[in-house]
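Researcher: Structure prediction, please.
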Amino acid sequence: MDLAGLSAAFRQLAMRADLVDGHSFDSGYDNGAYYNFTFGTNNARELWLVMWESIFEDPKFRSHLALSAMAVCSSNHGWDDYVQLCHWDASVSVASLEDL
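Model: Predicted structure follows.
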């Protein structure tokens, strides 16, 4: 997978001041490599739609993300209030845009 290209795509999205209030990117190793792209927004529905269309559906990334990625949206209460937007495991239930 083109991780440099994927990181660049998330960085480009992070520059969208109309959608992104803040962001952080980190990576590490925990029984395998991981990459976290975290965004703050007041418009989760629109941010997710743009992220889905511009990154998750991009032919350069789509097949790899389908096998390895998950996306969640949480409130200011963190994991006490979140919805699963995407998950590499098809048996995991995911929310729709209307749930945001």
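Model: Residues 44-56 form the longest helix (13 residues).
Researcher: Thanks, that helps.
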